[in-house]
Amino acid sequence: MKRISIHTLKRLPRYHQYLLEQQHSGVQKVSAKQIALALELNEVQVRKDIQYVTKSPGKPKTGHITSTLVYEIETFLGYHQTNHACLIGVGHLGKALLNYEGFLEKGLEISVAFDKDETKIDQSIKQIKVLPMSQLRPICNRLKIQLAIITVPSEQAQEVTDLLIESGIKAIWNFAPTTLVVPSDVFVYQEDLSISFSVVSHHLQKLVTKGDIK
Amino acid sequence: MKRISIHTLKRLPRYHQYLLEQQHSGVQKVSAKQIALALELNEVQVRKDIQYVTKSPGKPKTGHITSTLVYEIETFLGYHQTNHACLIGVGHLGKALLNYEGFLEKGLEISVAFDKDETKIDQSIKQIKVLPMSQLRPICNRLKIQLAIITVPSEQAQEVTDLLIESGIKAIWNFAPTTLVVPSDVFVYQEDLSISFSVVSHHLQKLVTKGDIK
DNA sequence: TAGATTGTTAATCGATTAACAATC
DNA sequence: TAGATTGTTAATCGATTAACAATC
Question: pTM value?
Fold first, then answer.
């Protein structure tokens, strides 16, 4: 099977979200056209994306069974198995993520947090213990944690990453605005809020120079 | 001039970050090759991206002047003019953004926050006042705010958006995991942490099914 | 049956990469 | 000068969209 593109992968959660809404409103069948219309996408694109994840084909004239499609997307994205993660860096952003309710239903459970600031140690946030950095390796090993979320300042991100790799982590969700150096078998997803803002900023910049804004 | 692609736009802040680091280490000249190597990108791609933003061409054999390039990227991305923004929804994520130091040097100043929870009103976070929703329209008008950051729960996001549009907002940075309906002259940047996580999750899912992880 | 929707094959579009000539 | 690096033109690659045949 052809390798899925990152574009398709990022659209699937949007389909999922839309389908859930529909399901809750009692809509039992849904067509690619409907989805495309709601999310402002191309109809054929939606169909192709759906064909990646589903074994049960849609029926001409009726479309897809909402619940089946929801379930298949969830399975494909891995929502049905729980990923235990650790979070490093209990600052404001770290705390926000620890408090975020929506992750559980997507299969993300943050099991433990680490921080080098001693005043934060042994606090609990939403039942999640904050431990000292010295515990990272043994705890990750014992709990067989594969995923780490990095919310430390940029300067410390690489250092933390090295420690994580030693501890057997296989995937990193990095919120620090810096490029991490990792071995090829470790997956890094770079979440960079300042990169996102730059896109917004450039757009506003254009408005100003065009005189679009008074 | 050809319209810049979102891909280029998202790479520029990474160049900027790398160039700043180099500048601070006293590196005065930098080549596209160097940047490409450091950020694991294609050399020609870096060169093309740079050509979008710079008027002063690089010199063969020496490359680009670090400081000039930094400055030109900043100008292009709009870091040199301050964008005043309002933030709606002072939950954990909202607070994290209000506390984030890095935005100022990218030209983002969150001037005011709003929340419908009365217990949060009149608090100040980093000198930023939290006001009731009823103040949104008059304040945005008076301060001529063009940018809004939405950190309310999904269910409230569209309602808030409608109010923002009435208040003259021209760009929205949306952290709620829902597709907003807006007029065509309003720019929406969708920041969706659960979409990001889905990419990570699917990757872990693959590892498991491949038996890559013991 | 007619029409809506499906899945597939082909065409288009845009971004990345390769090849190359120009120049400091 | 030779070689590194530039910018540009052409080739490749991949994603999106259009056209169409199949089917409920």
Answer: 0.94
